[in-house]
Amino acid sequence: MRVSDLFIYPLKSARGIALPAADIDAFGLPGDRRAMITDAQGHFITQRELPDLARIDVRPESGAFRLRMQGKTDISVPPPQPESRMDVTVWKSTVSAAVADPESNRQLSEWLGREVQLVFFDGHARRMANAEWAGEGTPVSFTDGYQILVTTTGSLKALNADLAAHREGSVGMDRFRPNIVIDIDEAWPEDRWAAIEIAGIRFDLVKPCSRCIMTTQDQLTGSRDVSNPMPAMGRIRMSADRRVPGPLFGWNTTPRGSGRISIGDEVTIIEARPEGWAMKVRARG
To answer: In 10 A of CB 97, how many CB atoms?
Structure first.
């Protein structure tokens, strides 16, 4: 059982970047979800609302970003100024974020056809994961709620097998926007992992990830006229635990140390969750 892929998503809801190796710190993978697009009032915007965010390619550059979209002129975003700030919301969290320069925001608004702002999670920003699941004092950036998302190849294979059995096509792992992908033949083993170790670092699998409409979108074009994994997840991956309702794929994970991990690193289960996670039983008929 080894790490097969590593990804970061520098701009929340934009395209990811595949990495051969990554540092791990208290926030997860450095550079992950450190920027975000909001409306004029500071409320976060994702592909759920703006599918075209999937068309934005992001490259870190001299402390900020170069943004690219097919058919558009690149936007070279300068490093944000710490004194230019506003409060932004990510789900139930309010974060003091640095705001990009007016020209970058003007160009980005033209790209997306509405007024938006680019904001940064800088050294002055503060946000914590839900202590009920991750424990006290675990910091997060602009992720949906936790530091790292772990998925497995065996689970994707099982999901695609159900899709194929119903002639509904197939989907790639990019639909689920993971940070760490683990190569294993078994389906859904992660439900029984309480903690794993990679390169001497402990990772606690703290909460399963409920999935939404973003999984139905092509992660290069934003199109929803593609194979849809939601019916299969509805058949075989519906949570029976009211604390985390809905279809599940992948686990939210909190690192308990720092270091560096690489593709090919061995993954060891160091603490089990024998009872797994309660799933609804599909009716037969």
So the answer is: 28
Q: Per-residue pLDDT tens for 238-247? A: 999 999 999 9
Supply φ then ψ for residue 156, to 5 degrees.
-65, -40
What are the tokens at 127?
């946000």
Report the alpha-carbon distance of residue 115 to residue 228 in Å, rounded.
30
83 contacts: CB under 8 Å, gap ≥ 6: none
pTM for the model: 0.96
SS3 of residue 116 by DSSP: coil
Q: Are 119 and 159 in contact (CB under 8 A)?
A: no
Q: What is the DSSP letter of 52?
A: G
* Amino acid making up residue 69: M
What is the length of the chain? 285
Q: Which two tokens stand for residue 101?
A: 């320069």
CA nearest neighbour of 89 among 144, 132, 134, 137: 144
Where residue 250 falls (left for φ over 0; alpha for ψ -120 to 50; beta otherwise) is: left
Element (H, E) at 105: helix 102-112
